[in-house]
TrEMBL record, chain A:
GO BP field: peptide transport; transmembrane transport
Organism: Wenxinia saemankumensis
Compartment annotation: Cell inner membrane
Start and end residues of each ABC transporter domain: 23-270, 301-551
GO CC terms of this entry: plasma membrane
Family: Belongs to the ABC transporter superfamily.
Entry keywords, A to Z: ATP-binding, Nucleotide-binding, Transport
Main location: membrane
MF GO annotations: ATP binding; ATP hydrolysis activity
SMART domains documented for this protein: AAA
Protein name, per record: Peptide/nickel transport system ATP-binding protein
InterPro entries referenced in this protein's UniProt entry, alphabetically: AAA+_ATPase, ABC_transp_ATP-bind, ABC_transporter-like_ATP-bd, ABC_transporter-like_CS, Oligopep_ABC_C, P-loop_NTPase
From TrEMBL, chain B:
InterPro entries: BP-dependent_transpt_permease, MetI-like, MetI-like_sf, OppC_N
Pfam families xrefs: BPD_transp_1, OppC_N
Lineage, highest ranks first: Bacteria, Pseudomonadati, Pseudomonadota, Alphaproteobacteria, Rhodobacterales
UniProt main location, coarse: membrane
Annotated GO biological process: peptide transport; protein transport; transmembrane transport
Disordered: region residues: 1-23
Parts of the chain that traverse the membrane: 59-81, 127-148, 160-182, 188-207, 242-269, 294-315
Record-level GO cellular component terms: plasma membrane
Mode of membrane association: Multi-pass membrane protein
Cellular location(s): Cell inner membrane; Cell membrane
Protein's name according to its UniProt entry: Oligopeptide transport system permease protein OppC
Length: 627, 327
């Protein structure tokens, strides 16, 4: 839909109008008990109507604070100096009343987390109307009309009904679209989008980005897109500034930055971004592609089911429905091999990991570890096995006990599995492990909140591998990290795999990273495998329409390629996993039209050696496949 | 995500990659990183302490509390008279001969029986503090472990354990305590048992509620995945993370207990003569209010109020300091 416009019209409309926003020598300082922190130290940029400026940088680079300062939304302990000129208003000198008039009216903002930026107790309609009531003093009817109009513009189906719904009734992608609609209600001249799609799935991200691009084109609103995702920047932005430590290290057009980066930091950043279109890890970072070939599999999972009973309303005591989080998944893992597991949120990939490790007892199927079925083993039996089966979690900070030093956290598995080990010996092992994961052993007494995300994730990895396990499951282990840090953690994982002979399951929603680390890739859709293939086959020769759509939705950090790519689009959000029709979205021809009926189960067909594809109907650029 | 944080720790990862990827570090584009010597980590407790000491009212109250404690435990050495010694010469002449004065040695005057009020206030304060502290201690130990266990184990165990708490809570404890004191006789031990019995109930509920949220944190799951036993998880991972809220609640519980005991004593139950507590002293003081011996009421009352205020302010300061939202 939107793609054809992008290809024909060069992405630079009226970029020569007078700037909407001019920022000169902006500095932001925070007073903290540990002294002043300079978050932003002298930043200049400007935005013209109909332009999208990408503000790129890693966490702590001051990119969000620059935007917040421009909106007059700094935290209380922050002070901004310099000059911010917005349509003739000096934003730093403006009084609170003037700011109130500007914010939400001429200048608005979309925040990262759509879950928390809508008030949970207010209906969508109430929240949207509020904006119009404040800035336009519109009567309710008129306000409602405009709200519905905008909800339709952001392609929310059944807009009128949505006005009466509460935020929790909408999915994440839906909520982010409501946020965009709300931000656009008064026809702002400038829109700050602070990581607008980071919390969303790739297919939803693609839809939201398209939407923002259309809005920019239709309304001439200038967009400042703050993000760490180079792919998103390549897709959206006309000009880019790269920030680091509160300074702009490089500024230029998208083509200049991506084609001919000048500053070393920009180069590092671009270098660190995983690419879905090619594996470009050089030398040491490459996985050993032949690991475990021809050996008997270490782990055999057959027809694994994890079902939850969900209570529904209806009847006197309510009824229960089965939520099939994992529904008949089978795969093998050979020693030293990495299996990538991808899928969107809610597809059951984390549940699969926990089912394999028996952290959530599977409801059916077998998990054969070294030939022995461990599914349904009790805690005592599992305890001995836990030494060999480890997991690294997504959120590096949340997975470490905040009251324990990192040394104590890393030592814990040793205390459990080798209780006879002496304290000094244990400490020595922990130090050695810290060294091995690239941390200074002197940090042994630090606490998690004192370390950065990347360092904490290294601690998490150290804890997982200190007992020299055979299988490590990485559950979104690098998703919460900055790109450059992500690249290092991936390096670390690959290196540990090669030196310690680890077998891994690498779960991620990021298909580019999965391509770098995996030998084979398994794509899940609502608890079922839709495609399982070697890592190159799945990207170059995807057969299933869902795999195709997933791959197409990932933005490539290269503006030219990105704008020229053909897209396979999924529209709408993931359907409810409670509806048994939902997993048959790609095989509609056999679906029974009853949300609770037992449905046909698509079989996996081996289309090429080691390449399995689930049965599907033709569509979305894919020919059909039936067993 | 872009909160101000220590820029030193942030840059380290990038430095690392540089030295690996390009052979040698390109120092000119990299800012100096923070010092990383053998550092004793700054724990969350240290952070909380720092925040606490920035709260002037709380620090002042802590000082006052310290003084009151000194008074309660060592004030007796300054007393000129034994707290139980009845001065018969003062009988009936209290209003003009038992007046507080340094000369006579009755710093706070005498009570209606001619006993030295200073010595008795010392003892009363000590008993009141002890009751508060013991009650809070029982609450912390029993309540936290009970609540954490119920919350962590969950399921039917949780249901049964919490229903027991509900049943105990629904019994009017003031009534039961009065009955107990009447049946078994008034003694400090009985009072401690009675107060210990109720104090942990609320704490158990609070601890359970907190445990339910801690239980779903990833670090607990990480511990389970490591193979750590349930009991060890409760002791090592759950309880330390509960302590913040538990301590806050305990400091707010101490004054509650003191008030409770005072009420019992005020009713004439509770502490047995010649021992006394602030509540009992206040009770005796009010009885003599109309006889021109107002000091009998004012001295114990002043200590009572100062003690409560100090405890409340300290509790408040602790809550602010330990509140995880502030972090």
């Amino acid at each position: 839909m939107a793609m054809t416009d992008t290809q024909t019209a060069p992405a630079r409309p009226q970029a020569d109008g007078a700037p909407v926003l001019t920022v000169r020598d902006l500095a932001v300082t925070f007073e903290t008990p540990d002294g002043a922190v300079e978050a932003v130290r002298g930043v200049d940029f400007e935005l013209r109507p109909g332009e999208c400026l990408g503000i790129v940088g890693e966490s702590g680079s001051g990119k969000s604070q620059s935007a917040l300062a421009a909106m007059g939304l700094l935290a209380r302990n922050g002070t901004a100096t310099g000059r911010i000129d917005f349509l003739g208003n000096d934003m730093l000198a403006a009084s609170d009343r003037e700011l109130l008039k500007i914010r939400g009216n001429d200048m608005s903002m979309i925040f990262q987390d759509p879950l928390t930026s809508l008030t949970p107790q207010l209906r969508i309609g109430q929240q949207m109307r509020e904006v119009l009531e404040i800035h336009r003093k519109l009567p309710r009817k008129e306000a409602d009309r405009i709200c519905i109009e905008w909800l339709e513009k952001v392609r929310i189906p059944e807009a009128e009904r949505r006005l009466r719904q509460y935020p929790h009734e909408l999915s994440g992608g839906m909520r982010q679209r409501v946020m965009i609609a709300m931000a656009m209600l008064c026809g702002p001249r400038l829109l700050f989008a602070d990581e607008p799609t980071t919390a969303l799935d790739v297919t939803v991200q693609a839809q939201v980005l398209d939407l923002m691009d259309d809005l920019k084109r239709d309304t001439g609103t200038a967009i400042a897109l703050i993000t760490h995702d180079m792919g998103v920047v390549a897709r959206m932005c006309d000009r880019i500034i790269v920030m680091r430590h509160g300074r702009v290290v490089e500024a230029g057009t998208a083509e200049e930055i991506f084609g001919n980066p000048q500053h070393d930091y920009t180069k590092i950043l671009l270098d660190a971004v995983p690419r879905i279109d090619k594996v470009k890890r050089s030398g040491k970072g490459e996985i050993d592609i032949d690991a475990g070939r021809g050996e008997e599999p270490l782990l055999k999972v057959r027809d694994l089911n994890v079902h939850f009973d969900v209570r529904m309303r209806g009847g006197l005591f309510g009824t229960t429905r089965k939520l099939r989080a994992v529904d008949g998944v089978s795969f093998d893992l050979r020693r030293g091999e990495t299996l990538g597991v991808v899928g969107e949120s809610g597809c059951g990939k984390s549940t699969l990991a926990r089912g394999v490790l028996n952290l959530i007892p599977p409801t059916g199927g077998t998990v054969a570890w070294l030939g022995r079925n461990i599914a349904g083993s009790d805690r005592q039996q599992m305890k001995a096995l836990r030494k060999d089966l480890q997991i690294v979690f997504q959120d590096p900070l949340a997975s470490l006990d905040p009251r324990m030093t990192i040394g104590a956290s890393i030592a814990e598995p040793l205390q459990v599995h080798t209780p006879e080990m002496r304290g000094a010996e244990r400490a020595a092992k922990v130090r050695e492990m810290l060294n091995r994961v690239g941390l200074d052993p002197a940090m042994i007494n630090r606490y998690p909140h004192e370390l950065s995300g990347g360092q904490n994730q290294r601690v998490g990895i150290a804890r997982a591998v200190i007992t020299r396990p055979k299988l490590v499951i990485c559950d979104e282990a690098v998703s919460a990290l900055d790109v450059s840090v992500q690249a290092q953690v991936v390096d670390l994982l690959i290196e540990l795999q090669k030196t310690m002979g680890l077998t891994m399951m690498f779960i991620s929603h990021d298909l580019s990273v999965v391509r770098e680390v995996s030998h084979r890739v398994m794509v899940l859709y609502l608890g079922r495998v839709v495609e399982l293939a070697g890592r190159d086959a799945i990207y170059t020769d995807a057969r299933h329409p869902y795999t195709k759509a997933l791959i197409a939705a990932v933005p490539v950090p290269d503006p030219e390629r990105e704008r020229a790519r053909e897209r396979v689009r999924l529209s709408g959000d993931l359907p409810s996993p409670l509806d048994t029709r939902a997993p048959l979205r790609f095989l509609k021809s056999v679906v029974k039209d009853d949300p609770v009926a037992e449905q046909y189960r698509p079989k996996l067909v081996e289309v090429a050696p080691e390449h399995f594809v689930a049965e599907h109907d033709p569509g979305l650029g894919s020919e059909g496949l039936r067993a | 995500m872009t909160e101000p944080r220590n820029p030193g720790t942030d840059t380290r990862d990038i430095d690392h990659i540089e030295s690996e990827k390009h052979g040698e570090p390109q120092a000119e584009i990299l800012d100096a990183t923070g010092e990383l010597g053998e550092v004793k980590g700054r724990s969350l407790w240290a952070d909380a302490r720092m925040r606490f000491f920035r709260n002037k009212a709380a620090v002042f109250s802590l000082g006052v509390l310290g003084l009151v404690m000194l008074f309660a435990f060592f004030g007796g050495f300054l007393a000129q008279y034994d707290p139980a010694q009845v001065d018969f010469s003062l009988m009936g002449a209290n209003a003009y001969r038992g007046v507080p004065s340094i000369e006579t040695g009755h710093y706070f005057g005498t009570d209606v029986d001619g006993r030295d009020l200073y010595a008795r206030t010392v003892i009363g304060t000590r008993i009141s503090l002890l009751v508060g502290i013991v009650g809070a201690l029982v609450a912390v130990i029993v309540g936290t472990l009970y609540g954490a266990t119920a919350g962590y184990v969950g399921g039917r165990t949780d249901q049964i354990m919490m229903r027991i708490v509900d049943v105990l809570m629904s019994i009017p404890f003031m009534f039961v305590l009065i009955l107990m004191l009447v049946i078994f006789g008034r003694s400090i031990l009985m009072l401690f048992i009675g107060i210990g019995l109720i104090s942990w109930l609320d704490m158990a509920r609070i601890a359970r509620g907190q445990t339910l949220s801690i239980k779903n944190k990833e670090f607990v799951e990480a511990a389970v995945a490591t193979g750590v036993s349930s009991w060890r998880i409760i002791l090592r991972h759950v309880v330390p993370n509960l302590l913040g809220i538990v301590i806050v609640y305990a400091t707010l519980l101490v004054p509650g207990m003191i008030i409770f005991e005072s009420f019992i004593s005020y009713l004439g139950l509770g502490i047995q003569e010649p021992m006394t507590s602030l509540g009992a002293l206040i009770n005796l003081g009010t009885a003599q209010m109309n006889n021109g011996t107002l000091w009998m009421l004012l001295f114990p009352l002043a200590f009572f109020l100062v003690l409560l205020f100090a405890l409340f302010f300290v509790g408040d300061g602790l809550r602010d300091a330990l509140d995880p939202k502030d972090r």
